[in-house]
Write a structure and sequence with these properties.
81 residues, mainly alpha, globular
Length: 81
């Protein structure tokens, strides 16, 4: 997947995961670092997909394009007073 900016984010995958997984992240959830953001999204998406299938391959390929540092920075910035 080619990395090109999308809606102000580093790429489409980062924008889409932020929108669908982290939109609405609030103070109760607290700050998140890049590794925790990645693990959280993978736990949300991958348990419903059987390993070693085409769908699993596509899901993991899409998630590998996400800029997790960009997402964690945006989430943490949104928590500031």
């Amino acid at each position: 997947m080619k990395n090109t900016e999308y809606n102000g984010w580093s790429n489409y995958a980062t924008w889409r995961v932020n929108l669908e997984v982290f939109d609405g992240w609030d103070r109760e959830n607290g700050e998140i670092d890049a590794e925790c953001a990645k693990e959280f999204a993978e736990e949300l998406v991958l348990p419903d997909v059987e390993e070693n299938t085409l769908a699993y391959g596509y899901a993991t390929a899409f998630l590998s394009e996400v800029n997790w540092h960009e997402i964690s920075e945006a989430v943490n910035t949104s928590l500031l007073p």
